[in-house]
Amino acid sequence: MMADKIDEDALRFGQMLQSYREGAKVTQQDIADATGLTKNYISSIERGVHKCNAQTFIIYAKKCGVSLDEMAGLIPKSKLNRNLMKKLSDMSEDT
Q1: If you compute the radius of gyration of the chain from its CA atoms, what whole number of angstroms results?
Q2: Residues whose CB is less than 8 angstroms from the CB of residue 6 and which lie 6 or more positions away in sequence, other chains included
Q3: Percent of the chain scoring above 70 in pLDDT
Q4: Backbone CA torsion sign across 88, 89, 93, 95
Q5: Are 15 and 46 in contact (CB under 8 A)?
Q6: What is the pLDDT of residue 89?
Q7: If you average pLDDT over every residue of the chain, what do you get?
Q8: Local confidence band at 52 (pLDDT 50, 70, 90 cut-offs)
């Protein structure tokens, strides 16, 4: 029996999500709680087994304190930008 072919793009994307998540000190459980998915499913996204939908991608970006453009690789990573986005995401809507 032949092993399932790994989707290299999904694997790279999942590894990128994991890198941002770990860099922001966010747990898989934090992402799971915010998305309504299980921790095991979040793990499977980061391993490239399942693909990440747009809603989950947005939650990753918000929880990690980065813009969607930065997380998607459309602008360079910036510590200043990351810190600013984290502070903004932590603020209440009233602020």
Answers
A1: 14
A2: 48
A3: 75
A4: negative
A5: yes
A6: 73
A7: 85
A8: very high
Collect contacts of 21-26 with beta carbons under 8 A, ≥24 apart: 21/46, 21/60, 21/63, 21/64, 23/64, 23/82, 24/63, 24/64, 24/65, 24/66, 24/82, 24/86, 26/63, 26/64
pLDDT digits (tens, 9 = 90+) for 68-84: 988 888 876 665 566 66
Q: How long is the chain?
A: 95
Per the listing, tokens 């994307």 go with 13
If you ran DSSP here, which 8-state letter would residue 91 be given? S
CA dihedral defined by 37, 39, 45, 49, rounded to 10 degrees? -110
